[in-house]
From TrEMBL:
Identification of the protein by name: Universal stress protein
The organism's place on the tree of life at top rank: Bacteria
Ranges of residues in domain UspA: 7-142, 178-294
PANTHER family the record matches: UNIVERSAL STRESS PROTEIN E
Family: Belongs to the universal stress protein A family.
Main location: cytoplasm
One Pfam family hit: Usp
Amino acid sequence: MSSDNGILVFLDRDLKAPQPALEKALRLARAAGQPVTVAVNSDSPAMRRAVGFDDARRESAERQIAKAWEKRIDELADGTAVTKRVAPHRDAETALRDTVVECAPSLVVVHTSEEGTLKRHLFTPRDWLLIRHAPCPVLCVHSQPWGTPPRFTAAVEPEEKPGGLDAAVIHTARYWSEQLHGELEAVHVLEHPDETLLLVAGEALPEYAASANSIREYHEKALAEFAKRENLPEEKTTLLEGPVTRTLTAYCEEEGADLLVVGTVRRNTVERLLLGATAESLLTRTGNDVLVVKPEDFESDWR
């Protein structure tokens, strides 16, 4: 899980903002002994409008803005040595991609946008871009601090074959939980198929799907086998029932989870247009941080 390239954190573009992504990235890095790279797009549309077409004034202003950002980063790092990447980019998405590719981090940390749901659907924010394209895990954070110790909730689909995405999710959750001396649990959300589907499908469905009770028993067994395989105590596993996003959100809020760890898969071009995948929809609904893990065979088009 560790990497010589360490953790890459993207700052919000407001110079005076509190930058929770950097605060939490530093906590992870200090615990795991990993280096930190801090990236910020210092482009200022207001500055460009003010200086007009005067290149000399623009370059001077960009240098001043860069110095202000470097000073701000040093203040926030509070004595921790970090690598700073401060540069103006008008094409924010390309800059995001190039930074991830060049830094090749083991983890990307970004502040989840507070923008409304409608705007997030019209304009793809940074966290969604990173979830869809970055080749490494992506931690999307909110402003509230983690508890001591922090609580990790790993959402798994234990009916999948051993060694797949579920293994990556639980291994990533366990690694960071151990670094922070946190608490770890695994949950599985059982979303029951529509009863009409059960009646219509009939013999086409597997034997365990004949009724709600048999479905529940099947998933309870699968979760127990997963826990045994991953050396998780039985009391640290929970079977939830209901719509996935709403159920996970409610559970994390009720149980006080600090980080929800989920998996995602690479989708094709058409599927990427269908917003509402679990990881992305969670970001618009949950109040806790979300760590999104990719499978080992994830192929990023950013490479």
